[in-house]
Amino acid sequence: MRYFKRISLILIIILFSLILMNEYSMPNGKILIKDIVVNKKNNFHYINFNQELNFDSLIINAINKGIPLVFKVVLRVVEKKEIWPTKIIKKEVRYYQIEYKALRKIYRVIDTNGKIHEYKNIAEATEKILKIKELELAIDDNGDFELWLNVSLDRKKLPKPLQVNYFDSTWNISSEKGIHKLGKLN
Amino acid sequence: MKYIITIVSFIGIALLILLAKAISNSELISSDSFRILLGLNIFFICSLIVLIGFQIFRLLQSVKKEIIGSRLTLRLVMSFALMGIVPVLIVYLVSVNFLTKSIESWFDVKVESALEGGLTLGQKTIDILMEDIELKGKSIAYSIGNVAPEKRNSLLTDLRAKFGIQDAVIFDLNSIIIEVSSEKSNLIPPIPSINDLERGGREFFGRIEEEDGEQIFLKTFTPILTKNINSKTLILQLTQPIPPAIANLALSVESVYGEYQQLTYSRNSLKIIYILTLTLVLLLALLSSVSASFIISRRFSSPLAMLADATKQISKGNYKKIISEQGKDEIGVLIRSFNSMTSQLEDATKNSEKDRERVEIARTFLETILAHLTTGVIVLDEKKIIQLNNIAASKMLKIKPTDMSNKLMSEIINKNLLFKPLYEYVESYINNNKENKKETSQEFKLNKDSEQERTIMLQVTPLKDNKGKSYVLVIDDVSEVTQVQRHRAWGEIARRLAHEIKNPLTPIQLSAERIQHKFKSKLSKEDSEILERSTNTIVNQVNALKIMVNEFAEYARPPKTQKDAVKIDNLIDEVVDLYDIDKIVKIKKDKKIPIIYADQNKLRQVIINLLENSQDALKQIKNKEIKIFLNSKSNEIELVLEDNGIGIPDMIIGRIFEPYVTSKKTGTGLGLAIVHKIIEEHKGKITIKRIKNSGTRVTINLKSGNK
């Protein structure tokens, strides 16, 4: 009986920790990925998609105060197998950053290719980063493919002071880990 | 377990140091290493909580099982824990308060306003410079638009130099450079975008550009309006760097403002992480100290628990409990003293045990003696309550030995009034013994008027011990001794009498016969008849005296028996036949009567004497009856002879075996005395009793089987 009580206590602590960790690691779904289109051009497949960013006033205020935000686009193309676990054909990680330059009163966007774009207002700036164009997939036509796409705010690229509080969920900005069936591409 | 706690405590201290180091390094705080460290700390704290919980559980179990030392350990642990918890909690609360206030103080409103003011100042400066360059641009564009194309370059150079502009470039809408003027001689100007040129062709617009985060440039696009309507649209691009002093300051303010805002946003995060770290440090310190308190408490309580356990063992009589010596402190001295005391106690107990054994042996010895004494011994206290009595005493009083203990003597005596005179004597003695008289003794004749007269010798001895006074009563039944003494006295008398009387009897008889023989013929007939009658009387009386003397001699003779195998049933038949009294004698015998070893002649005399006594008692009785019973018992035979004669008077029945004690008018009174003597010589037993209505019963018991 006493061992049962001891094990129960340990289990309760572990369960509580897991719930806590899960709570803070849950994406809050502020980014919505939509309009995914796969095109074939010169025997290469490209993906285009739009995003809908639902920043709350706290995030917009933070941008306006000069906090740079870096978004991470993780794209995985996996081939589905009957028995064997799914095989990752390609993994592509891209970053884009948005920041406000207070002195010049401009919004600066550094796109996934590292190119800098500057805008007078935030709407123009976000408009730029919402559309992801011509992301190469590098797949052939014969497989049965799935596209796993996720866009999230990269907390590790936040300014150091903001990385301190691991428990602050304000900065948990992410899309759902969406799975999009591509099927056989022709 | 103490090793585990020690190791855990060291790990806790190490983690504490690492955490303290990490918290002082802002780079490290935001790193994954710090997160791992935090995780480790949390895991370690959980482990400590489990460990402490287990320790508490074990301790409570020990308390429940009443294990010696567990309560003391619990109290010490609680004391140590309280001693640790209270000050650490106070320090923690103060630290949290201090920390919160310190972090808040970093974000003073004035600082933020100053930074915002600085930033705005920079913005305004740039705006003013922009307005200035706008005016200059418009002025140059106007001038250029009104001169011939071949004079443009010199005019552009003059005006650029005049207005202090760094670069001035004229583009057409196709991004072709028309004119260039620059402070730098070898300038290859960057081509603006088509959008910029198109917009610049329509209207004036300016832009602030940053180069390498160090230098700020103002770039303006101004349309050049010419008089020739058909001429191409030209755009004047002016590039003017902001003075480095202003640019650096403005960039610095922007950078600081950004960092300040980042810090502002991390204010709560910093508070949380510092409080979390502080809490972890507190918990680590507290839990480590509580863990350590278990070891320290056990270390303190262990020797005391051993002492308590040893004391308990000693109270149970185990004096061999020796505690291992620990250290040279006061507890060590206490343990050594305790061990010395235990050793002394053991020696004392051994001696005491030996004394007790000696006393016990003596007591057992005394009890055995008392139990085997034929003399009754009773010990009374001052209240006359029986403290001790032996078996002989209870037999005398005819009461079970166990029923006598702790009873009032008077209660016991009321159950057997025969001994009342003794009690009265004792009561009187005790009541009057306040002056501590010496011992006293008294002889009592009990049952004087009955067949069982008893002579009791009572001796009372006062004792004085620490419980008070007590009295030892020694009761001795000397009836048999008295009787034996009396028989011996009679034997001596009979022997002397026989010796003194028997010797002159023969000369007297011979002298009387001689006188008769010599003088009978010489005397007259009448005198001769008188002489004959007188001498005959003398001879007859001498013969009678001879018979009496012979009987005395028989009574007084020394015990000498010739034992042979005797069939007593045949002997009885023979004697009965001899007396020819078959009609009145009824014999009842067991089927098998064992042989006894006895002097047949003397046994015959016993039977003859008893039958003669019975016949004498039956002389005046009409229905004369003598019954003889011969029974075989385990190691003896029992001969019972009953008659329905006149019986023996109560007054003499107690002394009936004494010489000259008889109820008959004739006879010497020695018959039963001789019978008694013969039976005693055969180590048998004879009793004589009156039968209830009339008659007498004589019972003889003789041992059978061996010589």
Verbal overview:
- The complex is a heterodimer of chains A (186) and B (707).
- With 186 residues, chain A is α+β, with helices and mostly antiparallel strands.
- Chain A has one domain (28-183).
- Helix content of chain A is 24%, strand content 41%.
- Chain A has 4 helices and 9 strands; from the N terminus they run αββαββββαββαβ.
- Chain A has helices spanning 2-25, 57-64, 122-130, 160-163, and strands at 31-41, 44-53, 69-79, 87-101, 106-110, 116-119, 131-136, 145-153, 178-183.
- Chain A has a 6-stranded antiparallel β-sheet, covered by helices on one side. A 3-stranded antiparallel β-sheet of chain A has the order 1-2-7.
- In chain A, a hairpin with a 7-residue loop joins β3 and β4 (87-101).
- The longest helix of chain A is centred in the first third of the chain and has 24 residues, at 2-25.
- The relative contact order of chain A is 0.22.
- Chain B is α+β, with helices and mostly antiparallel strands.
- Helix content of chain B is 59%, strand content 16%.
- The radius of gyration of chain B is 73 Å and the shape is rod-shaped.
- In chain B, a hairpin with a 3-residue loop joins β14 (626-632) and β15 (636-643).
- Chain B has 5 domains: 2-106 and 266-296, no CATH class; 136-253, Beta-Lactamase (2-Layer Sandwich), CATH 3.30.450; 373-477, Beta-Lactamase; 483-556; 564-703, Histidine kinase-like ATPase, C-terminal domain (Heat Shock Protein 90, 2-Layer Sandwich).
- In chain B, α5 (109-145) runs antiparallel to α8 (244-265).
- The chains are: A alpha+beta (186), B alpha+beta (707).
- At the A-B interface, α1 and α4 of A face α2, α3, α5, α8 and α9 of B.
